[in-house]
Amino acid sequence: MDQNVKRLTRSTSDKKIAGVCGGIANYLNVDPTVVRIIFLVALICGSIGFWAYIITWIAAPEDKNLQ
């Protein structure tokens, strides 16, 4: 497998609950706080933020390389 392929993983170093927002922020090269705010707004506006977080938590593997 190509080592330069970027994969979405849950962060082990920048996590508050499960590392989903930290992993997405790492994947998109943005600040994790921005991703957390987007998830919070999505949660307040409807339940899509909650379900997106849960599905990503289940589907994304944990990043083992940063430990």
What does this protein look like?
The protein is mostly helical. It has a domain of about 40 residues. It contains 3 helices and no strands. The longest helix has 14 residues. It is globular, with a radius of gyration of 12 Å. The mean pLDDT is about 85.
Keywords:
single chain, about 70 residues, mainly alpha, 3 helices, globular
Briefly characterize the structure.
By secondary structure, the protein is an all-alpha fold.
What is the strand and helix layout of this fold?
Layout: H1 20-28, H2 32-45, H3 48-59
Helix pairs in contact: 1-2, 2-3
User: Low-confidence parts, pLDDT < 50 over ≥5 residues?
Assistant: none
Number of helices, counting only DSSP H or I runs of 4 residues or more:
3
The sequence of SSEs as H and E is: HHH
Helix share, percent: 40-55%
